[in-house]
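Support reply, case 0932

Customer input (verbatim):
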Amino acid sequence: MSKPLFDQQAMIDQFAQASAKGTEQLRKAVHDATLQALQGRELSLKNIRGVVGQVTQAANVGAAQSGAAAQMETMLDTAVAGMDDALLKAVEANRMALERLVEQGVSLRETQLKKALTDLEKMEDTMLAAVKKAAAGAGEPLAGPWAQVLEKFNVSGTRTGAKATGTVEDMATQMQSAMRETRAASIKAAQTLAESYTALVSGVLIGMSDALRQGGSAAKAPARKK
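Our regenerated output:
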C-alpha cells in the first residue's frame, strides 16, 4: 500500500502544534487519519497492518520535526493511543457483522465465521507488530522514546486487544445459545415428523387393511356363486 491512504502532511503538522495545544488534538488527528484510511477498504489484517504502518511512519516524521525532544515519548504514546481508538471502531464493526451472521443462523463451524473470530484475536498483535516495524526504522532520536512507549503497551496491552477478547468471548456465548435454540427447534421438528410419520403409517396400514378386506370379499363372492 504505497499510495497514501490519508492526508499525511496534515497529521504531521499536528505534531508541531501538539506542544502548544496539548496532546488531545493530536490523538484525535491520528484517530481520524487511521479511521479514514481503514474506511472503504476490506477490513483484513493485511490492510490493518498497512494502515498502521503508514500512520506510524507519519508519526515518526511529525515527532522528529517537532523539535521537542522532551515530549517525543508523549507524542508517540499519543499517536499509538489514537490508532488504538480507531481500531476499537474496527472491532465494533466486526462485532456487529458477527451478530448479523449469528442471527441468520451461521454456525461456529463455518469457515468464514471461524476466520473472523481468529482475525479478531490477532488484531492487537497485528497492530503492535506494524507499529514496531515502522518504529524500528525511525532511528535516533526516536529510538529511546519508542522503546518506552512500546514497553508500556507490551505490559498493559491495548484497548483494542481487550475489546477484541471480550467480543470473541461474547460471540462464543451467543453462538452456543443460538446453537442450543437451533438444536431445540430441530428436536421439536423431529418429534413433529415422528408423530406425522406414525400417523402416516397408521393411514397406510388402514388402507392396506381395507384393501385386504375388499380383496377378501371379492374372492368369496365368486365362490358362493359357484
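We compared this against your earlier run and they match. Two observations from our side: Residues 77 and 170 are 30 Å apart (CA to CA). The longest helix spans residues 159-225. Please reopen the case if you see a mismatch on your end.
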